[in-house]
Design goal:
The structure holds two protein chains of two kinds. By secondary structure, chain A is an all-alpha fold. Chain A has one domain. Chain A is built from seven helices and no strands. In chain A, helix 2 (about 45-70) packs across helix 6. Chain B is mostly helical. Chain B has one domain (about 1-220). In chain B, helix 2 packs antiparallel against helix 3, helix 3 packs across helix 6 and helix 7 runs antiparallel to helix 8. Classes of the chains: A mainly alpha, B mainly alpha. Chains A and B meet through helix 4 and helix 6 of A and helix 8 and helix 9 of B.
Chain lengths: ~240, ~220
């Protein structure tokens, strides 16, 4: 892997992310109308929903990368899958916290059990929270990658199934703003939401790419040090959940 | 298929000779009923509460079997022997899932009457056929997911911890469907004669999807 490919397009991507998120914030605060029922607090919707959607897509993306690893056996796929899931977890926790704040503001409780989207999201998060402990407790790196890939595929397929099961088990409270029949958002809110969603997606992509670049660069540096200065110059890797 | 049968026979013979897993599961389940009696401070329960207590108890008892499922293979070198043999690797999945399924059935043969005796308010007789259907479907899902999780966990350092923390979230949808399907059967007032079709269908679908998924990925867990 030539070192010049590292971080290619990262600057453009970062700029696009900053611009889109900036635009989204401007739209959220100055363009989108205040919600008639919930007032100002409804604006958290423009952060919460994109975070949750991007996080779930991130888990599924991680599963697809894991399929790539099992098919090819190349470690870069495992790295992609790892970074995707790890980023999706962070976004997911953000989504859960913003969702909780919104629930407190609009329903009066921090946590609402008869709320299928919230509950299924929690279950998915609980499942993916075991990804890192699983990796960490397998010492052999090759086996770690293989088992983690199997786990992410199973867990990725679990995401939609779980949503179906939990949704059927409860009554709706959650606002159905995004339905297949077109939803019930006014156009200005819809536009703001789409821009926010694009912004958060770009943020996810950028952070994913940054971490990939950092990890690739670090292993490249280690490789170079080892060739130039000999084996002793590189301290052995600490045991870690991350692929190297 | 023949390989799977041979492996299954080996597992069952091992269990019959050592009597390690199933008696432990039964004891665990009965103790859990006693704990629920004191925890809920109720002499009898019915309806959704009864279904939930039964399902949760069986689910937790199954964790004991899931933890032990591959331990003999790992400790006695059974994995290496199996990999050296010129046989299809899916046979291992099939045999282990069948063994886990039979362990669960053996557990339920004792634990469900015990539940009827200790905790259940309405008589166990009328809802039994529906309950058997629901539990068989639940056991199928549990057997497949349990085998998969156990195969992942057995090669980790903290396998007794990793198994349950991965297995329980994966089994939550199955638990929801089982409890919801069994709930109407166990009502004292106006019990349903058959489990709700919606939940039986979801449970069956869940079993099917995970069976296919496990079949697709299981080979990767045995490579070395």
């Amino acid at each position: 892997m030539p070192s010049t490919t590292y971080g290619k397009g990262l600057r453009g991507l970062s700029l696009a992310t900053i611009l889109t998120i900036g635009l989204a914030l401007v739209l959220v605060f100055f363009y989108a109308p205040l919600d008639a029922n919930q007032g100002f607090v409804q604006k958290i919707f423009y952060i919460h929903v994109p975070l949750a959607i991007v996080s779930l897509c991130g888990f599924v993306f991680g599963a697809l990368m894991a399929v790539g690893y099992l098919r090819t056996g190349e470690r870069k796929w495992d790295m992609r899958s790892y970074v995707a899931i790890h980023m999706a977890l962070i976004f997911g926790i953000g989504g859960l916290i913003t969702g909780s704040i919104w629930a407190k503001a609009s329903w009066g409780h921090w946590w609402v059990w008869n709320e299928p989207t919230l509950v299924s999201f929690l279950i998915v998060l609980l499942l993916f929270a075991t990804y890192q402990p699983l990796r960490f407790s397998i010492e052999d790196p090759e086996r770690q990658s293989r088992y983690a890939s199997v786990f992410s595929i199973v867990a990725g397929a679990f995401v939609p199934l779980n949503f179906i099961a939990v949704r059927l088990s409860t009554q709706y409270v959650h606002p159905r703003v995004l339905t297949l029949t077109g939803g019930n958002l006014p156009a200005s809110m819809g536009l703001t939401f789409v821009i926010s969603l694009i912004g958060i997606t770009l943020l996810y992509t950028t952070l994913w790419k940054y971490e990939m670049t950092a990890k690739n660069a670090r292993s490249q540096v280690r490789r170079l040090r080892r060739t130039l200065l000999g084996e002793d110059s590189v301290s052995p890797m600490r045991r870690s959940a991350a692929p190297s | 298929m023949r390989t799977a049968l041979i492996l299954l026979r080996k597992d069952l013979r091992l269990e019959l000779r050592t009597l390690e897993t199933v008696p432990a599961m039964v004891l665990f389940a009965v103790v859990t009923f006693v704990i629920f009696h004191f925890g809920l401070n109720r002499d009898t329960i019915d309806g959704q509460l009864a279904a939930g207590v039964l399902t949760a108890t069986l689910l937790f008892a199954s964790m004991l079997a899931i933890n032990r499922l591959f331990v003999a293979e790992r400790e006695q070198g059974g994995f290496d022997a199996f990999l050296l043999a010129p046989v299809d690797r899916s046979a291992m999945l099939l045999a282990k899932a069948a063994a886990l399924f039979l362990f669960m059935v053996a557990l339920e043969v004792i634990a469900v009457p015990a539940f009827g005796l200790f905790l259940l308010g309405p008589s166990l007789g009328p809802p039994l056929p529906g309950l058997i259907l629901v539990l068989v479907l639940a056991d199928l899902g549990l057997a497949v997911i349990g085998t998969l999780v156990s195969a992942i966990a057995v090669h980790t350092r903290a396998r007794d911890l990793i198994g349950p923390i991965i297995g329980l979230p994966l089994l939550i949808p199955a638990l929801i469907a089982t409890a919801r399907a069994a709930g109407p059967l166990l009502r004292t007032v106006d019990p349903a004669s058959a489990p709700p079709g919606k939940w039986v269908a979801i449970l069956a679908l869940y079993d099917l999807v995970f069976a296919l998924l496990a079949y697709a990925v299981f080979d990767f867990l045995l490579e070395d």
